[in-house]
Write a structure and sequence with these properties.
Helix content: 25-40%
Strand order of the largest sheet: 6-7-8-3-9-10
Bound molecules: adenosine-5'-triphosphate, magnesium ion
Radius of gyration: 17 Å
Distance between the termini: 25 Å
Length: about 230
Amino acid sequence: MNDDFIKMVEVSKIYKDGNTGLTAVDSASINIPQGSMIVITGPSGSGKSTLLYLIAGLMEPTHGEVFVNGKSIYKLRDSSISRLRKETIGFVFQAFNLIPSLSALENIIASRIMDQDKRQKKAFELLDEMGLTSHKDHLPSELSGGEQQRVAIARALINDPDIILADEPTGNLDSENGEIIIRILHELNSQGKTIIVATHNPELFMAEGVQKISILDGHIEIDAGANVYGRE
Ligand SMILES: Nc1ncnc2c1ncn2[C@@H]1O[C@H](COP(=O)(O)OP(=O)(O)OP(=O)(O)O)[C@@H](O)[C@H]1O
Ligand SMILES: [Mg+2]
């Protein structure tokens, strides 16, 4: 087990806002062991999505370094960082971000890398796991919110990533569909995947071993007793 699987060292993200800057994440230092399940919570605008983008390799920090599995990801060449994003990290976006013109099956397959022959098989397996086999040819506009969210999760899993980052994965769902997503995320964690979820409803995700991080105005606070640790 790698205790520093994901490591942020004094990471800040300052968005340019006219002449001034908006500090969305303020000097965050945190270590996340492999196989953890972490829930990030905080009010709207507190920096949850920004924190996930920074970990995902999607947004370069203004200051500080982000390490994934020992590599300082923003020091990698563009080709290496995009490989890391595809192979190691699955991202479930707040607004699904499915491609409207592609069917459920095609959306899942679209981000599959390598093994051209195997990808169809893997996509069918994921559709089955998500209970979507009968909807495989539906366009996103022909799917409910819960179904779209499950397609988005299947897409995040197509490359069998070690890390799954999910931004408000239940935010647009009713409680029944939300519970399905939560169960899927817990199952993935029990298979050894490192899961980080940003949510306004942390209580829905809490279970034995799940750890909570709160963020307020870009400052992160780790719950006492958590296995995740930060530094001042
Ligand atoms: N691209 C951007 N340019 C400028 N400011 C931004 C940008 N993205 C986010 N912000 C600002 O950064 C702060 C943090 O935003 P972020 O999206 O990380 O919050 P959040 O905690 O995910 O909120 P929510 O719960 O509403 O999704 C907010 O004040 C937001 O307005
Ligand atoms: Mg957000």
